Amino acid sequence: MVFLFHYLSLLNIFDAFITFFGLENSFIQEMNPLMSRIYEANPALFLITKLTFSLCLYMFILFKKVPSTSLTKGLTVFASSFYTLIFFLHCYWFVALI
Length: 98
Known about the structure:
There is one protein chain. This protein is mainly α. It has one domain (2-97). Helices cover 82% and strands 0% of the residues. Helix 1 packs parallel to helix 4 and helix 2 crosses helix 3 (43-62).
């Protein structure tokens, strides 16, 4: 589980910065309605919100309180899988820009 928390956190950090770059340069649109509204309200708040999620995951690791319930495992695997797909999508459009 600790590995998945690291992995998910790193993917989230990557997603935060690459999405911010894409939004700032009008290359992409934010598909998450909540994050889209946050970005429209304040782009810096968008980054802070995304990075806070990664910080929370790292706090679980730091304090050795990573939950190990089957629900947490399932959600973490789902989120990691989803963010992996998003990572490849970002890589695709980033390479297409070059």
